[in-house]
Specification:
The chain is mainly alpha-helical. Helix content is 51%, strand content 5%. The protein contains 14 helices and seven strands. Strands 5-6-7 form a three-stranded antiparallel beta sheet, with no helix packed on it. Strand 1 and strand 2 form a beta hairpin. The longest helix is centred in the first third of the chain and has 20 residues.
Length: 375
């Protein structure tokens, strides 16, 4: 496979995003309707609301076009409403603030952005339950009758939010953030990663004793199945924990999960919602491909094998399949990556989702050396 498509993808991203950003000023996008980004400003605590900011910062880093920075800072300021909302602050703080205020601080050294990111990290650290050494995923405080129902719930997605804690530890020289992140990662290895490298989505603990009680099917097709985006979160999340801690067991875990993922990639290179979904089901989730590719590229770099690595080659295959078959390059539509699915049992499948674009852009930027590393 030649590399010409990588440069072409980079140029097309720059071309399309400039027009999309101009059209999408003041929005907080999640998906598109008739090719146009929607706006989640009125639901500002939604977990995906940092990804548009991440896209804008990646484009600003690569082009230094003022428009991207201005729109990214505006979105960051909108998220202040969530910082003051206990129900809105959950374990997905990394997704929201590393890609917005964290990116702002990395790129410019802005002190207000630093304070926002640190405040989000402190809140996330407060979700740690020392009884089971896990970070609580979701809230239930807004409903008096339901309070406590989610107190023992942790999910695989949190592996991608741990870098917020590592960042806080590195910035403040306070090891508590690091210890919380590492203990959560150790718990995930023990209870979420199966022998074959597949992962569970949701784990439930007794919040008082810390005993692991059961797993739940979550966003995959069934209990015991293999939700592909969960696999991707785990691949990327564990290699990121390795990069921040240099603990070999995290890299080994990332490789084991990636080996399982690679063994299940269809010949087409497009990724199903669940590797164990029924044979007749053809639903895809392009976000899983983009996220997994980002993680595999980092594994290849960390292991020192570079382009010769099976992980690098698999990432290239996934990204080329997206570029060739699942990208809408029209300047008249807003999203790039098509056929994304949030959950197997949702009513709607194979639409556009903002983090599909984010991780695809991040992966292409990794291949072209333009990336602003935000994790």
């Amino acid at each position: 496979m030649d590399k010409a498509w990588i440069g072409d993808a980079q140029n097309r991203i720059r071309e399309k995003l400039h027009k999309t950003a101009e059209r999408s000023a003041h929005k907080v996008p999640y998906t598109t309707r008739n090719g146009v980004f929607d706006d989640w400003t009125d639901n500002i605590s939604w977990w995906t609301n940092g990804f548009w900011g991440g896209i804008l910062w990646q484009l600003y880093h690569a082009t230094k076009e003022k428009l991207y920075r201005e729109l990214a800072v505006e979105l960051e300021e909108k998220l202040d409403r969530t910082l003051m909302d206990p129900e809105g602050m959950d374990h997905d703080s990394g997704f929201r603030w590393l890609l917005t205020s964290g990116a702002h601080f990395r790129e410019t050294g802005n002190e207000e952005a630093y304070r926002r990111t640190l405040l989000a990290a402190c809140n996330m650290a407060g979700r740690f339950n020392p009884a089971g050494n896990f970070i609580r995923a979701w809230n239930d405080w807004g409903n008096k009758e339901a309070r406590g129902e989610n107190a023992g719930i942790a999910i695989i997605d949190c592996m991608m939010n741990l870098p917020l804690l590592y960042w806080a530890s590195e910035q403040t020289k306070d090891p508590r953030f690091y210890q919380i992140a590492a203990r959560h990662a150790d718990t995930v290895i023990r209870h979420f990663i199966r022998e074959d490298g597949s992962v569970i989505h949701i784990g439930e603990f007794d919040p008082y004793t810390g005993e692991f009680l059961r797993s739940h099917g979550g966003q995959g097709c069934a209990h015991g199945s293999s939700w592909t985006r969960g696999q991707a979160w785990a691949i990327y999340g564990f290699v990121l924990s390795y990069l921040h801690t240099k603990r070999e067991k995290y890299l080994e875990c990332a490789e084991r999960i990636a080996d399982y993922f690679i063994a299940n990639i269809p010949e087409s290179g497009t990724i199903p919602v669940d590797f164990r979904q029924p044979a007749g089901c053809v639903w895809e989730d392009s976000t899983a491909a983009a996220i997994a590719a980002c993680g595999m590229l980092e594994i290849a770099k960390a292991a020192g094998n570079g382009e010769e690595s099976c992980y690098y080659q698999a990432a290239r295959k996934l990204l080329f399949a997206l570029y060739d078959k699942r990208c809408d390059w029209s300047p008249e539509t807003d999203a790039i990556v098509q056929k994304c699915t949030a959950a197997y049992h949702d009513r709607e499948h194979e639409f556009t989702i903002i983090y599909g674009d984010y991780f695809f852009i991040e992966a292409i930027w990794k291949l072209t050396g333009q990336e602003l590393f935000l994790w």
